[in-house]
Amino acid sequence: MPADNRKGPLLPMAAGCIAGAIEATAVWPMEYIKTQLQLNAKGSHLPYNGMISGFTYTIKEQGFFSLYRGLAPTLVGSIPKAGIRFGLNSVIKDNLRDKDGKLTLGRNFVAGLGAGVAEALVIVAPVETVKTKCIELNKPFINGLQHIIKTEGMAGIYQGATATAMKQGSNMGLRFMWFNEYKRIITNDGQVPITPLKSLFGGMSAGCFSTLGNNPFDVVKTRLQGTQASQYAGTIDCFKQIMAKEGFGAFYAGLIPRLSRVVPGQGIIFMSFEAIQNKLTKLGVF
Question: How far apart are CA 178 and CA 251, in angstroms?
Answer without folding.
Answer: 23
